[in-house]
């Protein structure tokens, strides 16, 4: 199937809808519902947990369990302080980038729905050249058009409301997908596509497959930490995004060289189980799926770590989708990489046998 296109009109329509829906960290459930609706025809049952992680399960009675995982949350802001003249100061909910905030529109999530706002910024005319201040957490602010704090409160905005960007899915030059929150809506999308392909190609797996969309990755892998204890998997193949390091001002000597369009990125790190990773590489080579390599010092910083270091150790590996401009509103990935990550996870699953331990000592 290496030559066949994977993404269909229907799957891309879902990807667009799923991306355009805001699912800030801690508030993922509407996105999870969209995702479960799409996944439903391809799985036997679902597991959900108290904090909103969702898992589609194929062969729920099987003893041996394999997870494929992405995370469902997106970075956002919290309203932290409201000034007397009605401006909002924010704190991060995940790694939101202060440098890109000025001049952006925002949606403030309230009980009554979205309230629109803008990140204001002093005009160029009013700033002094040499002493110009860059945007920082303590000087960026949101203006919702209110004259004072009282009006802010009347509009339903209070401390603790979350704020997301409204930017929606677009395609750049035919094959680049651009949106906020491709980190990691793409992950949830790709694992759902794996389930669709298994179903459409009538593949029967000899183990239980747990298609897992975890919450709260952006603030420290928390959703994965919870759901791995519920599932107690034997194997976890995680997918997240990694950096394209070929755009300006990124130092390859420290960041390595990975780029969009050159294939899935396979990680080397202590949390990555070597035999499982070699199985993925052998699969890529056998199926002629292009791939790149990346090394991580200490932790991978992805849900891979949460799965690996749980339940006495779970054989885990990481397949990443290279992405430009992470944590901005114009995150960019290549369509071919999206298809090749799907392909690589799919083909790897077909190469895992029931009961495999991946032990170094067998
Ligand atoms: Zn992220």
Please characterize this protein's 3D structure.
By secondary structure, this protein is of the alpha+beta class. It folds into 2 domains: 9-74 and 180-350, 3-Layer(aba) Sandwich (Aminopeptidase); 76-164, Peptidase M42, domain 2 (Elongation Factor Tu (Ef-tu), domain 3, Beta Barrel), CATH 2.40.30. 27% of the residues lie in helices and 26% in strands. The chain has helices at 9-20, 29-39, 149-154, 182-200, 222-231, 252-255, 274-286, 303-308, 335-349; strands at 45-48, 54-58, 65-71, 76-82, 87-93, 105-110, 113-120, 141-143, 162-164, 170-172, 176-179, 208-214, 235-243, 265-268, 292-295, 315-323, 331-334. The strands form 3 sheets. An 8-stranded mixed beta sheet has the order 1-2-12-3-13-16-14-15, sandwiched between helices. The chain is globular, with a radius of gyration of 21 Å. The mean pLDDT is 97. Zinc ion (ZN) binds at residues 183, 218, 327. Zn(2+) 1 binds at residues 71, 183, 240. It comes from Maribacter algarum (ex Zhang et al. 2020).
What is the number of independent domains?
A: 2
Report the radius of gyration as a whole number of Å. 21 Å
How many strand segments?
A: 17
Strand order of the largest sheet: 1-2-12-3-13-16-14-15
The N- and C-terminal alpha carbons lie at a distance of 32 Å
Which ranges are low-confidence, i.e. pLDDT below 50, for 5 or more consecutive residues?
Answer: none
Attached small molecules: zinc ion
DSSP helix fraction: 25-40%
Q: How large a portion of the residues is in β-strands, by DSSP E? A: 25-35%
The CATH top-level class label of the largest domain: Alpha Beta
Oligomer: single chain
Compute the average pLDDT.
Answer: 97
CATH topology descriptor of the largest domain: Aminopeptidase
Continuous helix count? 9
Q: Decide which structural class fits the backbone.
A: alpha+beta
What global shape is seen? globular
**Assigned CATH superfamily of the largest domain:** Zn peptidases
Keywords: Aminopeptidase, Hydrolase, Metal-binding, Protease
Binding site for Zn(2+) 1: 71, 183, 240
GO molecular function, one term: metal ion binding
GO biological process, one term: proteolysis
